[in-house]
Amino acid sequence: MAKVKIVVVEDEIVIADNICEILTDLGYDVAEPAISYSEALQTINEHKPDLAIIDINLRGKKDGIDIAQTLKSDYCFPYIFLTSNTDKRTVDRAKKVTPSAYLVKPFSKDELYTAIEIAISNFEKKTAESDLNDITTLNQSLFIKQKKLFIKIKFEDILYIKSDHVYVEILSNDNHKFLVRGSLNEYISKLDSNFVRIHRGYIINLMHITVIDQDYVEIGNQKVPIGKNYREELLQRINVG
């Protein structure tokens, strides 16, 4: 599975670099730290993180809580606050945007790791419970919720569906990618018999296979791996001995 992607928003460069170094040591995929509201949104849009670590006290007109308010309304992933302040006003403001955790500086490597893992785990559970309402099928088409809209994708136009940690990537035959929160189990139950899971991270559309090799299939000019526990079912589905 892909590494958890994390964006750090911290305007104290030494502290930001130290946090990024710790995160890298812990095995996370870390983007270059952002130091302001605008940089944070730019980095988030570019890297599509699984989690953000945000210092509340940023210089400028908008602070970390303003960033969290934007994430809460326009995005869908967890965030953790960092702060040196534990005064009532700061805590009350922070509570309104429901962070996944609140770490007071200085904090230890173990405290940071624990906060991240619990935040990701809780978010995945919450997403699994709610995303079924964001996936609808009708007349051999899949409707996926993208912000306030439902986008229609015909079953026949789907090449494969790929799991990427807490995301699911749907690739259509015009090479358009739809990135949504969810799990493969939620999707396989809603698709027709042309779809089969060939790997713990992939569901493919049998109608678009061009080559089957020992370890992969070619579909849409891309090689998709076959998991050893899924190969037999794939061959049975296409009636190959």
Can you put this structure into words, describing what you see?
The model has no long low-confidence stretch (mean pLDDT 89). The protein has helices at residues 13-25, 37-47, 64-74, 88-95, 109-130, 184-188, 231-237; strands at residues 5-9, 29-30, 51-55, 79-83, 101-104, 135-137, 141-146, 149-154, 158-164, 167-172, 177-181, 195-199, 202-205, 209-212, 216-219, 222-225. The chain has 241 residues and is of the alpha/beta class. It folds into 2 domains: 5-128, Response regulator (Rossmann fold, 3-Layer(aba) Sandwich), CATH 3.40.50; 138-237, OB fold (Dihydrolipoamide Acetyltransferase, E2P) (Beta Barrel). The strands form 4 sheets. The chain has a 5-stranded parallel beta sheet, sandwiched between helices. The protein has a 5-stranded antiparallel beta sheet with strand order 11-10-9-13-12. Strands 6-7-8 form a 3-stranded antiparallel beta sheet, with no helix packed on it. The chain is elongated.
What characteristics describe this protein?
241 residues, Rossmann fold, OB fold (Dihydrolipoamide Acetyltransferase, E2P), 2 domains, five-stranded parallel β-sheet, 7 helices, 31% strand
Major beta sheet summary: 5 strands, parallel
How do the SSEs run, as a string of H and E? EHEHEHEHEHEEEEEEHEEEEEH
Indicate the radius of gyration in whole angstroms.
Answer: 21 Å
Percentage beta strand = 25-35%
Number of helices: 7
The portion of residues assigned to helices is 25-40%
Strand order of the largest sheet: 2-1-3-4-5
Any idea how many domains?
2
Number of strands: 16
Mean pLDDT: 89
